[in-house]
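U., I forgot to send this yesterday:
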Amino acid sequence: MKTLKFLLFILIVLTSCASNGYLLSGNGQDKKYLINYIDELQKENKVLKYPLVIVDGKPYRHDVELSSNKLPISKKDITYIRSLDWKSAKNIYGGAAKDGAIIISTRPIKEQIKELISANEKMLFLLNGKRVAVSDINDLNFDFIREIEIVKNKEMIKKYTSEDYDGVIILQLKN
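Result:
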């Protein structure tokens, strides 16, 4: 009986530690925002057990950087969050993303877009699925942008154009 209780205790501890790697700084339910987000993605089979988390370009692996620390952000810091399935994530980020990836940005969308526009790369801009010029993007009210997706993988770019681009910036406006 003691052995069974001990094994049950160990199982509970290990289960709770496994998801704690995805805790955010902050209070209350906001701490579990990323855990809940990942749980939903797992139910939809979009990511597996331990997706790689990338915050502002910096990767956080569940078994390394997140093994004993929370992510250094809170829910209110997140301006953008997106998931990549394990196949796409592994192609982009390698073996560390074998379970998928969660891309998080804490920088304002306006700042991200301005940086992409100023880079010396040939980028295709799509706004709500339609091709737009850089000048149209510069004239946008960034408060109305709901989502931004940046595609840099050459194979993925081919889904949007047969022309030679370094990337595709996909913007979705709020309703």
